[in-house]
Amino acid sequence: xxxxxxxxxxxxxACVVHRQDVVSPSNVDNNCWVKVYDSDNFRDTGSSATLxxxxxxxxxxxxxxxxxxxxxxxxxxxxxxxxxVWKSPNYSGTELTFQPNQRIQNLxxxxxxxxxxxMKVACK
Length: 124
Hints:
Layout: H1 2-10, E1 33-37, E2 48-52, E3 55-57, E4 74-77, E5 81-88, E6 92-98, E7 103-104, E8 118-123
Antiparallel strand pairs: 1-2, 1-4, 3-8, 4-7, 5-6, 5-8
């Protein structure tokens, strides 16, 4: 499609190219996110990262420049997001799902502190 647009423009004919797969500010859901912390109680004393969905992470190595594998102690789920987490990379091991607006201040209470190895953020 892009090649067609370039060829058409080279011939002097005007055209408009529209692609649905290009993310632009008008089609981004700003409420589809997950924020993870490497400390409990949402403390930003260590590191935190905001992950915008939809996103599938088979491993949490090098997410926003940090190895988050087995490092998450608390998390917040945005109003239009759903989060699935697994204890092991590649979506294996014990799985747990968090709903929109859910805030888990201490993942140890659900036996997942420092034990998340992969995740999927879905937009609702």
